[in-house]
Design a protein that fits this description.
globular; 10 strands; 2 domains; 309 residues; binds 1,4-dihydronicotinamide adenine dinucleotide; disordered N terminus; two-stranded antiparallel sheet; Rossmann fold; alpha/beta; 13 helices; N-(1-d-carboxylethyl)-l-norvaline Dehydrogenase, domain 2
Length: 309
Amino acid sequence: MAAETSKIGSIGIIGAGLMGCGIAEVCALAGFRTVLVKATEGDPMTARARVDRSLKVAIDRGKVDASAAEAALGRLTVTSDKLEAARCDLVIEAIVEDLATKRALFADLAPHLAPHAILASNTSTLKIADLAAGLRERRMIGLHFFSPVPAMSLVEVAHTGATDDDVVPAAEAFVAALGKTAVPVLDSTGFIVNRLLVPMLLNAIHAYEQGLAPAAQIDSAMRLGCGHPVGPLALADLIGLDVVYAMAKLLYRDTRDACYRPPALLRSLVQQGALGKKSRLGLYDYASKPPRENAAVVELIRGTARRAA
Ligand code: NAI
């Protein structure tokens, strides 16, 4: 499949969290030589184990053949050396959502990239123009995957209008080679999906903290009433409350629109390290199966209601 794209044969992914591991999995499955870099301390093999676990789930669900999964793992290199990824045709960063941290990474990578290489960010909300300023602006784009990456078919391809002519078509061909659909979008805070999705997530958290209904009922209402596969509170936990908070702050800063103002409950959970499913505690508590509401949040909401009465 990789041969269908003219220039992109190898993919470097930097950041081995939820998104980086998911992107590495789909790239390796699609036939690309894939280098996944664990950008923070710790054994990079944990990232390989994470991809391996996800592939096993896909095999159990009949979505991937065992032989295809084995071949994908054979194409995947996991390392802590960023320069191994810098040698690839397409380098996708999926590290923490912070402008300065991402720019510092790009500045490190830039001198080591081949002239034809494309640098992409999986940012949820940062503007590509801000990430790219002074750094390979003509060969930088946004490649915004969605979580969980193996299941979600959209990739927003964010472009500034200043890129070389081949960059967006090459990115679209790459996305098609993954079996996903590219939607090109002009660079802007939040692109299309998060500009529209974030207000719904924040409003769901507002409704919850105001005691309108328990979390599970808010989620059921949106699943059954709007046909959403996952309710907004469960989705916020799945995305990561830190990521939702970062998106809301950026959108609010750039638009000053009150629909993006982060609720106090979201801020407080993030400050406590309750980041959603990835930290096993967020709006829901994932220590129990099925997850139940986070008891501390329920108590907080009851206390606020008692004080207001
Ligand atoms: P995550 O928290 O699972 O992973 C982030 C990774 O960044 C971790 O591997 C961590 O070790 C690394 N990291 C943390 N601090 C760092 C630093 N100072 N320098 C270098 N690396 C550092 O987060 P996730 O969800 O994978 O998000 C990664 C990027 O993808 C963010 O830009 C986020 O906005 C974006 N994104 C997230 C989506 C989601 O649903 N969670 C969806 C689409 C985009």
